[in-house]
Design goal:
There is one protein chain. The chain has 396 residues and is an alpha+beta fold. The chain has 2 domains: 225 residues, Jelly Rolls (Sandwich), CATH 2.60.120.10; 97 residues, Sandwich (Jelly Rolls). It is built from 12 helices and 25 strands. The strands form 6 sheets. A 7-stranded antiparallel β-sheet has the order 1-23-20-25-18-17-16. The N and C termini lie far apart (54 Å).
Length: 396
């Protein structure tokens, strides 16, 4: 059976010249209302006990860690053009050398990154993603992440994100100032101890694990480590009290019983949270990659400052083309316009035709992206760890 699947995958990759079409993967959340900017029909957002569709995951090999939902929630499926059904996760696990490349697959056991669009009509509750030392205790990865606020989309009612805590809390080591909010679990007043930053379309932030944050309502394209660990520290959100189980979701039972709410405070990176230059060290602006460019096409770094993942934005004017050569496997998502991507017709907003995965052997050779529409295209590229070595770093 395994060899039969191998042969099918080899044939699909060969027939498609190393490029895989992907179907959209939708993820529901039950603790926030949807922003309804993902392009679904009105009646498709509500999914009963699961909550509402609030996220779309792109080229995902990560299962959503929801209490209620299908076994394959969050996982992307390859469009095989037949009845053969397989997830990208299974494909990567079955023929890693064909997707990741023979050398890369020896040192990396998967794509090791997760791309998502999240779309909420209320601010996400104040939370952290556990650092590696704590995530490892529950068998998970850490979750460094980065945001890009999408252009040409409504910003929602709260387009500002809270990050960290006021510097004096760290300077004076007043970490227990947050403890009463966790014990009482009754309101959202914990946010009074944080600072908010505007969500500016076309910009973003890089956020290592362990930093407190409450993301705003801008439609956000997020690139992160492939993990879904978190601890929610804000009880009241969007008019309702969320389950306190979300505070301890990724905490060992014995640690919860021994330390109670205080265990969460020990998982926070206090120095980073209270850094008075937090904005300067974490704010991401688009960085033009080649000032000479390729005529009427421009490419920018939008995710950088880490070796764990990276990402680019490509803009091509109508009727123009861009030749792409990359260092390894990547996936793309077209946000605006339509194009021919090395023989594949892609179009923004057309599900099943707006995301692709480019295998290693195809990615490292020149491929042509041609704008076939009447307006500029905006296309994003996403890379996993150690693929790009020329990533910019914030110098502050």
């Amino acid at each position: 059976m395994a060899s039969e699947i191998n042969k099918k995958l080899e044939k699909i990759i060969e027939e498609n010249n190393g490029i895989l079409k992907l179907k959209p993967a939708w993820v529901a959340r039950d603790f926030l209302p949807p922003g309804k900017r993902l392009g679904l029909k009105e009646e498709e957002y509500n999914v009963g006990k699961r909550g509402s569709i609030c996220e779309r995951w792109l080229a995902s090999v990560t299962k959503a860690d929801n209490a209620v939902g299908p076994e394959d929630e969050g996982l992307s499926y390859i469009d095989t053009g037949s009845d053969f059904k397989i997830t990208l996760k299974s494909a990567v696990g079955t023929v890693p050398e064909l997707i990741l490349g023979s050398e890369y697959s020896k040192t990396h056991k998967g794509l090791n990154r997760l791309v998502k669009i999240y779309d909420f009509d209320a601010r996400i509750p104040f939370h952290i993603h556990q650092m590696e030392k704590d995530a490892r205790l529950v068998g998970c990865n850490s979750k460094d992440e980065a945001y890009y606020f999408l252009d040409d989309a409504p910003l929602g009612p709260h387009p500002e994100t809270f990050f960290g805590v006021h510097p004096y809390i760290t300077e004076q080591k007043k970490y227990d100032i947050l403890l009463p909010y966790l014990k009482e679990w009754k309101d959202d007043m914990i946010l009074r101890h944080s600072r908010a930053y505007l969500n500016v379309p076309g910009e973003g932030f890089f956020l290592p694990s362990g930093i407190l944050h409450a993301p705003g309502t801008a439609l956000t394209l997020e690139l992160q480590e492939d993990s879904d660990v978190f601890a929610m520290l804000q009880a009241l959100n969007a008019g309702k009290i969320i389950s306190k189980d979300l505070l301890f979701k990724d905490v060992r039972k014995q640690d919860r019983e021994k330390y109670g709410e205080k265990i969460i405070l020990d998982q926070i990176d206090w120095q980073a949270c209270g850094d008075p230059y937090f904005y300067e060290k974490h704010h991401l602006e688009s960085i033009l990659i080649d000032k000479n460019g390729q005529g009427d096409a421009r490419e920018y770094w939008i995710y950088y400052n880490t070796k764990k993942f990276s990402g680019k934005k490509l803009i091509i004017e109508p009727g123009k083309s861009f030749t792409s050569v990359e260092n390894g496997v990547f996936n793309i998502f077209i946000w605006k316009g339509r194009a021919n991507f090395d023989g594949f017709d892609i179009e923004a907003g057309k599900f099943g035709c707006d995301e692709l995965l480019i295998t290693h052997d195809r990615a490292i050779k020149p491929l042509t992206i041609k704008n076939t529409g009447s307006s500029e295209i905006i296309l994003f590229k996403f890379f996993g760890p150690d693929i790009n070595t020329d990533i910019p770093y914030i110098n502050f």
